[in-house]
Every structure is written in C-alpha cells, then in structure tokens.
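STRUCTURE REQUEST FORM
Protein name: DUF4760 domain-containing protein
Source organism: Tateyamaria omphalii
Requested output: structure tokens
Priority: standard
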Amino acid sequence: MAANGFSDFLSLAASVTTILASLAVCVTALFVWRQMRLQADTFDNDARRLRRESFTFVFEALWDEGFRDARMAMLEALNCGNAIPEDKSDKDGFRNVLNTYEMLGLAVKLDTIDESVWREYWRMPLLRDWERLEPFVQQERDLPGGEGLYTDAERIVLRWRGTA
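Status: completed
Returned output:
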C-alpha cells in the first residue's frame, strides 16, 4: 500500500513539474514577445524619426536661398540654350545645383537620410535637371581630376529612372 502511495506521489509530482515547466515556457514566450514588441516599437519610432529628420534635411537643402537662386539661374541659362556655360558665374551656379544633389546622394549612400523622402519630394525635378546637365557634367569630368565628380548624384538618378 505504501508503494502505491509513493507511486501516486511521484505521478502527482511529475504532473506538477510538467505544469510548472509549461507555465515557465509560456511566461518565457510572453516575455520574449513583449521584448520583441518593444524592440519593434523602438525601431518604428527610430524609422519615423529618421524620415522626419530626412524630410527636414532635404527640404532645407532644396529650399536654401543659394540653391534656389542658383537653380533658377541654371534653368534660365538652359532655357536659353546654354547647356555648357562659359561665364564663371553661370558655371558656379550649375556647380552649386550639382553639389547640392551630390551632397544629398552622398547622404543616401551613407544611409544618413531616407532616400524615399527625397525621391517622393524631388524625383522629377532631379531627373529633369540631370538630363539637361549631363553635357556640363561630362565637361566637368573631362577636366583633370574631375573623373569622380557627381557620381553619388548620378547613382541616384540611374536608380530613380527605373522607378515609375
């Protein structure tokens, strides 16, 4: 009879141990789920902050008075058929625009701004400007030491040409 009581005790202890182990697995799974949820929320907040900061950065770069003035002068020169300016002031204006695009392209390359923010905001103007500036870019690259000029901007243009 005592052996039967002991085997009942062992059976009960095994059942309790199984229940406790199952409970521990559930608690651990709940803890892991909660941690993953917190991490996802943190990532979402970080991604949202990056997009917000990217928008501010892109907006300020493209609405800077110097950039706007240079771009207006560049467009005026291009509209007059002056694709490769001879005047130093016009060349500097073209370079100002291209340097701004290059800086934004580099920021995308270094993953310091969200490319989609820039693309949504300025895709068509960049593609149109680049197409019209290609002869000037080529002339600049043909100068001694100019081979690598505006490559980050060009990388963006090539990528964006493939998107509708």
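Reviewer notes: Residues 127 and 155 are 12 Å apart (CA to CA). The two ends are 83 Å apart (CA to CA).
Form closed.
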